[in-house]
Amino acid sequence: MAWTILSSWFFGVFLTSLTGTVSCFFWKLLEFVMEKKKQFRWIVFSGKLVIIFYLVPVIYLYIYFSEMLIANNTYMYTMVVTPVILYSIVAAFLIWFVGFCVGILRYFMQKQNLKLFVSCSVPADLKINRIKDEIEKRLALKQSVAVRFNSQCSVPVVMGVRKPVILLPEQEYDQKKLRIILEHELMHVKHRDLFWKHFLYWISKVHWFNYSFKCLTDDINGWNETYCDRDACYGEMAICTYEEYFDTILENARVKPTEKLLFTMYLYENKKGIKRRMVRMRHYHASKELRKVVVALLTVCFVGVSSVTAFAAGEGMLKGYDALTDTTANKLTEADVTNDVETIIPPGTDIGIIEIEVPARTRTYMDWTIPGDTGYRTGPFWVTKGKKIATSALISPGNKFINLGIIEPDGTRRQVSGMSAVAHTFDVNYTGGYCVFVENRASSEITVQLLYEAQ
User: Fold this and answer.
1) For residue 90, is it within any domain?
2) Buried-most residue among 226, 234, 256, 343 (CB within 10 A)?
3) pLDDT at 314
4) Alpha carbon distance 269, 263 (integer Å)
5) pLDDT of 125-183, one tens digit each?
6) Residue 341 CB: number of other CB atoms within 10 A?
7) For residue 448, what are the β-bridge partners?
8) Could you tell me the residue range of the domain that residue 305 belongs to?
């Protein structure tokens, strides 16, 4: 039972990752167009919206509710999970879980490294703190940010969500360039980029197997840098020109960061990144940015197209799953049935064994251990007239005799008998609630893998 739940959860993670990948693909196409048009506001905003598709299990919910039958205001799940599919998902879950645990371990190691890194720093002097306070006030920051010198720091860096801190290399700073450095790092705090860095990290550990999310994370972090560049050079409170700004960053780029810490935002990370930022900001004009209303409309269209595509992918996934179910289910039905002739038992007939109902309204695959001279049956599920109920059972040990059948709405029992492997498809003559049952006719305990489906 526990493995079934965990496997179902992982299946949802996998399908959600697929949804996110589809949305990310559309976003990358639009990003290319919008970058040419310098529409940075929309790119930054919509990029973060894509994350929703990696969180909300759209396809999983679509498949889940597509396989529901509704009767008397009650949902009955009819999706088949064959043993082969179940075991495959369990194996995939175990692999995913190992990768997830490695990510969690790395998180705690990095947090410890950050604490050690910050512990090697000392508070900045009063002059620097005054400049920092002026910028904080001008940017209307709601929290105070500490500034410290660090002997191990090669490039200015900001870190921390609840208690952010800026670390500066120990050197003399020109006042103008110091303002630019602090402006850039404090802009990250204002935009809550460090929160997004943490948030993306945790989601990436869930989707560690999906390369598309890594690409999305890198893109969002890169656009967060660009957005800070935009506000520092062209925003309403810009304090420098494009040339002055990137001259300061390029001066720091002479020293490549020697430390690689998670959950931090560096003034400069690599040559490729700084070149991309400079190209994006060249010839930028804030007045050409789309208005917020237009940005909102474009975003609604983007979400709508992504959702429709996700549902289409869900339909395709459902058909693929049905085909896979048919393929794997055949492994159960290929075995010979000892007696394929239906036996009909009228309602109220004493069948001579103890019968126990096993609630199973959300599963159509059962793994039962049935005591001797005992029968197990499922809870009722709704089937309409004209359909069929396909059943199959694997018995262990294979020399034990069972009855496999259905109970009709009026209580009539229809069954076939056999050993080792038993399979039969029952015609549905009446609309109503049906149960599937397995009777152990032996005196000793048996294990039964039961698969049934309303078709």
Assistant:
1) yes
2) 226
3) 63
4) 13
5) 888 889 888 888 888 888 888 888 888 887 888 888 888 888 888 888 888 888 888 88
6) 8
7) 368, 395
8) 1-117+290-334
CATH (domain of 369)? 2.60.120.380
- Among the candidates 300, 334, 368, a domain finishes at 334
Burial zone of 14 (CB within 10 Å; 0-12 exposed, 13-18 middle, 19+ buried): buried
Tens-place pLDDT, residues 54-98: 888 877 776 666 554 443 333 344 455 556 667 777 788 888 889
Q: Distance between CA atoms of 451 and 409, rounded to whole angstroms?
A: 20
> What Å distances lie between residue 125 and 1, 147, 150, 151, 173, CA to CA?
61, 9, 13, 15, 12
Q: Is the dihedral of CA 60, 66, 71, 77 positive or negative?
A: negative
Q: Are residues 298 and 406 in the same domain?
A: no
Same structural domain, 109 and 7 = yes
Q: Are strands 388-396 and 165-169 parallel, antiparallel or unpaired?
A: unpaired
Structure tokens, 61: 């919910």
Per-residue pLDDT tens digits for 368-380:
888 888 888 887 8
Separation CA 193–CA 225 (nearest Å): 9
